[in-house]
Amino acid sequence: MKNALGVSLGITALVWTYLALNVIPGVLVWAGFIAWGAYFTVGKDALTKTISATIFGAVMAAIAVGIVALLDDYLAVGIAAPIAVGLTVYGLTAFDKLNNVPANVFGYAATFGFLLMGTGFYDALGMEGANLIALDLANPIIVTSLSFVLGSVFGLISEKVAGMLK
Length: 166
What we know:
- By secondary structure, the protein is mostly helical.
- The chain has one domain (4-165).
- The chain contains seven helices and no strands.
- It has helices at 4-22, 29-42, 46-71, 80-91, 101-116, 121-124, 140-165.
- Helix 1 (4-22) packs antiparallel against helix 7 (140-165) and helix 3 crosses helix 5.
- This is DUF1097 domain-containing protein.
- The chain crosses the membrane at residues 15-39, 51-69, 75-93, 105-125, 137-157.
- Pfam families: DUF1097.
């Protein structure tokens, strides 16, 4: 088939979107697609590397929020967030075993996007980090991580289906 990957992506995207919107509670269609795209940037052994890298990015985003919460009362307005982001983005490259920078950044950015949807950065901090330690779907790290895992799996599935269609 001339465009096996395109056909495979279309079919699996249909299934993923249906499941994410109707069957699997709490997952984010768009975050799954981000991990899915990351899957194709990773290369060999993409599934485990993509999952670990995107989740690592999500955890680093949560750490950034925690740093802001700790520093915000002690620094001039608008300084804590850039410091926290600078430190944690550096951290995305600091561990050899998790040094998949594109997927790390995708997980980081998607998690920040989810944390800040509809609010400004400092409004998101008003929760005082309570949701970041919840062990349910109120926790943005759990929601994005679950979405990343499933999106990565759909990346693998779409790759395998494309191989069968060739």
